[in-house]
Structures are given as structure tokens and as C-alpha cells.
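Reviewer 2 asked us to include a model.

Predict the structure of this chain.
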Amino acid sequence: MKRARAWISVLLFGGLTLFAAGLIGRWYLFERPLPFKSERVEFRVAAGSSVRSIAHAAQAAGIELNPNAMVAAARLTGAAQSLRAGRYSVERGVSLGGLLVKLRAGDVVRERLTLVEGIAFREMRALLSAQTQLKQDSARMSDEGLLKAIGASETHPEGLFAPETYVYDPGTSDLDIYRQAYRAQAKLLHEAWASRAPDMPYANPYEALIMASIIEKETGQAAERAMIGGVFVNRLRLRMLLQTDPSVIYGIGPSFDGNLRKRDLLADGPYNSYTRAGLPPTPIALPGRASIEAALRPASTTALYFVSRGDGTSQFSATLAEHNRAVDTYQRCCRR
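Predicted model (C-alpha cells):
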């Protein structure tokens, strides 16, 4: 009897020892806070990454973990085949188990894409195509095909997309960003058109969008947008040539080398505002909210001309004589 009790005691002690060892092992593998080289680290997980490659990415970012341990933990929890791609932000104090939970849930940092006012649509396409976390569904589409895919009725894309910051989850279709930007610009234009100043010289909101794109490209200082809008609206009302260089440059296209020559101003074309009266046929850039508002609620001014002072601001003139003097003054200034 005493021998039996002794064996029972040995077995119980051994079982408790194994249980305690298991608890310690589980804590060490799953629950022990991982050493970090900083308070927070970020790393990316590419689609289709193995657990080991994810471990190496976390290591490179500053989390001190054992790739073999991470592979074993992922297999034990059944997480090995369900870790999701994306950009992760992880704070000091997380355990390997917590890290796997985060990766399995796809608790990613959302991606951000900023479209700057004044870029052309072709630049917008280049920016979106460079976003590796976007699904590139429009890659083989023409501009017209892209517009059709997002439900737009227009056939020319320029100016139709709002230059703002867009937040998205990795794996989002690029068409979703185009669709968001298109709807945001349409909403903004509709609201601005509804609150426009009286007697604006536009037949429809699209013409106002064209003017807004010109204002966007001509504005050096944000505070001058309304004045520049006032100048161009005055010229449009008087049937004067708009004579805006950015429109000519847009007509030249990607081959423009940064030097606008006299022969460019004399070469007739639909976007040459030195040879053709009225607005160009389409916008020439993506105008932002402020430029749309400046096109539809411009400053009340008698100015018909403006010239750069060379410091980002403009000198406005009501007569050609005043303008010529301003050009002479600031050209002499800038040559010194």
C-alpha cells in the first residue's frame, strides 16, 4: 500500500511538473512580450507570404523573434494559412500569440493616397498604378474604358476627379478610388454650381470646371485664386482671348520640355487660348475645391491682366498700358 501511494505521488508530481512545464512553455511561446528595438514598428506583408518570410519582415522592422518559433506557433494555432497581407503597426508589449492574432485578423494600417490639386489625369493614373497595395483592375483599360467602368457618362477624364486624400484597405480595386474621386468631384461641382454668383458666363457646370482647372494652374498664391478667377471671367464676358499658357502647354502634351516658345503660341489647336476664343474643350488639370469656388464666385474686379512678380504673387492691371508697364517692371526685376 505504501509503495502504491509512493508511485501515485511520483505520478502526480510528474504530472504537475509536466503541466507546469507546459504552462511555462505556452507562456514563453505565445504570451511572453517580444523584445522590441523601439516603441512601435511597422512592416509589410506581401500577398502569399510564408510565415517564415513574415517573421523575417518583423525581425527587420525591429521585433526580436525566432522565425522557427513563429512557424511552430502558427502551425499549432492553425494560423499558418490565414495570415493576411497589408501594412502592420505593432507596439511594444505584444506577444507572439498577439502578433499572430493581429496578422490573422488582418488588423492592418489603412493605406493613404493623396492627389494634389493641379495634376493632370495621366499623372493621376501613374500615381494609382504605382500603389502596390491596390488591385490594378484598370491597368489594361483606356481612359474611356475606365470612365465607363466607374459609371461616368463623360468620354474625357480630365478634371473629373477630386484631388483629395483617399484611405483604402490593401487589396482594394483601383477602380474604387477612381469611383470615389469621380463622385466627390461631381458632388462638389454640383454644390458649387447651385451657389454660384449671378450672371456667370458658363453654359453649364462643365464649363465652370474647365475654368476652375485654368485657375488652378495659373494660381501661385492661394489668396489670389478669386482675383485670377475674376480676370478670366472678365475676359470671357468681353469675348477676349484668355491667353493662358497652361492651356497651350496642356495641348502640347507630355512632349512639352518646359520651355514655351513663340511658335507654340502661334500654332493653332483646340487648347491654344492665344489663337482661339472662349474656353478650351476640356479641363486641363484636376482642380480643387478652392479653384472651383473661384470660378463660380470670382472676385469683383476691373482687372483684365496679371503678370507674375517673380515671388509667387501677381500684379493685376485693368488696362493694357498698365499691364505692359507691369511686365516691363517685373521682367527687368527678374533679369537682374
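Residues 111-190 form one domain. The chain has three domains: 30-105, 111-190, 197-335. We have added this to the supplementary material.
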